[in-house]
């Protein structure tokens, strides 16, 4: 029987062209909550604290002290647990109707973003100006971080164990920090350099003050001493205390609507907090899941995922092992591996959106567009598919069925033309445990810039998909 040729085509659909007014309104309301989250959670610690607070409101409890003396509940269906790893990663579980032996449904995302960190001994003075030395974190374009108002977030831990929280620069009545830029009148040589070389890493130094401590004018480091004195009065810390500190430098500014139609969002750290928010909300809105469902939010993805709080840490597998212990009353390594092999996972991460101003680096057929929905990415990596996992055809078909059955706006994507660049996600680290996994998240523009751009349509489509994934019956 002859069919309409248009049925044979896969067509990208822009959500606002197809959604009714109610769905469009829901997407805008969802974006309001997201912008509040994004503005409040610029670091991993802030994100963990915020999401933990939301989880506790709806009955999530800390999973701890699991062992021989643990009392096994009569029924685990509907029970909700979480755990935090060193204040910088967090994992949630909502027990489903089926036993864990039938497999888990997992969504993983990362909550770190490119930024500047302070060096262990950052303070110095030069030409009567006080400075802090930084070390950039993740893939940044260094020139984008000059002449930009910056805030400082983090903790200083003293040898006695007390933790000093520092947040400065975000409120309107607080001073900001800044890295100077060279005036154009004297920039001839600088502007003839490659962009990568125009601003060097060791030049990303924060200006922090100009007033000297009273004393002899010939005395050295009077500005530095005055600044350390001010910090000591406010926080009761000394220069040595900065050796045991996690202090991050991020752009000042709230997440905002972008465009005359307010259809877009701009803000710092959307890679990958947009997925962390959408996945967490999907789990928190879940009612009576068939499978035990987890959201895993990790640190250190932007620098390779190594470390105790990254995706390569045993924290994730240990948590799943404790869930099994809670269900079975014992721990069995083979059983754990069987469960992982039956599990299904999403690596919730952003991908590149097609930018018409830089069209030469994109493959038009295989690059996502802003506003056309959540993006299904079979593989990431570099050059000949290096440094990545790749979803099987069978798993891609499984995900497609969920997307189409739930009538979610979706599209495919990749990270630019082959051999131009590339990048990876945390998918390959869960895949090492024999878990089926695929990358799926919204596209963004200006990735890794101080302020990135996303679409409200793609944010909401991602939430819809993550919720449908958790709600799958098979």
TrEMBL record:
Pfam families named in the record: Peptidase_M18
Keyword vocabulary terms for this entry: Aminopeptidase, Hydrolase, Metal-binding, Metalloprotease, Protease, Zinc
Domain of life: Bacteria
Enzyme Commission identifier(s): 3.4.11.-
Molecular function GO terms recorded: aminopeptidase activity; metallopeptidase activity; zinc ion binding
InterPro entries recorded: Peptidase_M18, Peptidase_M18_dom2
Cofactor(s) needed for function: Zn(2+)
Gene Ontology BP term (one): proteolysis
Keyword Zinc-finger: no
One GO CC term, this protein: cytoplasm
Family from the record: Belongs to the peptidase M18 family.
Entries under NCBIfam families matching the protein: PRK02256.1
Protein name, per record: M18 family aminopeptidase
Organism: Candidatus Nealsonbacteria bacterium CG11_big_fil_rev_8_21_14_0_20_35_11
């Amino acid at each position: 029987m002859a069919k309409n040729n248009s049925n044979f085509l896969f067509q990208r659909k822009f959500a606002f062209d197809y959604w009714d007014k109610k769905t469009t309104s829901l997407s805008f309301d969802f974006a309001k909550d997201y912008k509040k989250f994004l503005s409040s959670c610029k670091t991993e610690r802030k994100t963990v604290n915020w999401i933990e607070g939301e989880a506790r409101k709806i009955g999530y409890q800390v999973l701890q002290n699991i062992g021989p003396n643990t009392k096994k509940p009569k029924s685990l269906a509907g029970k909700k647990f979480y755990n935090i790893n060193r204040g910088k990663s967090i994992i949630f579980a909502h027990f489903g109707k089926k036993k864990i032996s039938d497999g888990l449904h997992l969504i993983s995302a990362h909550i770190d973003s490119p930024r500047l960190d302070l060096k262990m001994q950052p303070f110095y003075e030069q030409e009567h100006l006080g400075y802090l030395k930084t070390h950039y974190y993740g893939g940044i374009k260094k020139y984008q971080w000059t002449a930009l108002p910056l805030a400082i977030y983090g903790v200083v831990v003293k040898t006695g164990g007390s933790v000093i929280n520092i947040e400065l620069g975000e409120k309107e009545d607080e001073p900001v920090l800044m890295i100077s830029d060279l005036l154009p009148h004297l920039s001839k040589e600088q502007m003839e350099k490659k962009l990568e070389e125009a601003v060097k890493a060791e030049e990303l130094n924060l200006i922090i003050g100009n007033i000297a401590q009273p004393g002899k004018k010939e005395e050295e480091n009077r500005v530095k001493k005055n600044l350390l004195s001010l910090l000591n009065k406010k926080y009761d810390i000394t220069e040595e205390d900065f050796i045991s500190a996690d202090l991050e430098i991020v752009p000042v500014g709230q997440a905002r609507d972008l465009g005359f139609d307010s259809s877009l969002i701009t803000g710092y750290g959307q890679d990958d907090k947009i997925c962390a928010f959408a996945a967490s909300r999907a789990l928190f809105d879940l009612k009576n899941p068939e499978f035990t469902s987890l959201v895993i939010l990790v640190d250190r993805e932007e620098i390779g995922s190594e470390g105790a709080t990254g995706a390569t840490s045993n924290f994730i597998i240990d948590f799943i092992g404790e869930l099994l212990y809670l269900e079975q009353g014992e721990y069995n390594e083979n059983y754990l591996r069987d469960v992982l092999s039956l599990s299904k996972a999403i690596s919730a991460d952003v991908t590149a959106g097609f930018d018409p101003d830089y069209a030469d680096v994109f493959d038009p057929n295989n690059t996502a567009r802003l506003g056309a929905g959540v993006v299904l990415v079979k593989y990431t990596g570099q050059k000949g598919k290096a440094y990545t996992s790749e979803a099987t055809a069978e798993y891609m078909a499984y995900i497609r069925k969920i997307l189409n059955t739930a009538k979610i706006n979706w599209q495919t994507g990749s990270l630019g033309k082959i051999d131009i660049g590339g990048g990876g996600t945390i998918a390959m680290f869960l895949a090492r445990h024999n878990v089926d996994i695929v990358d799926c998240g919204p596209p963004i523009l200006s990735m890794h810039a101080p302020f990135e751009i996303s679409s409200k349509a793609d944010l909401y489509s991602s939430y819809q998909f993550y919720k449908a994934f958790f709600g799958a019956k098979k």
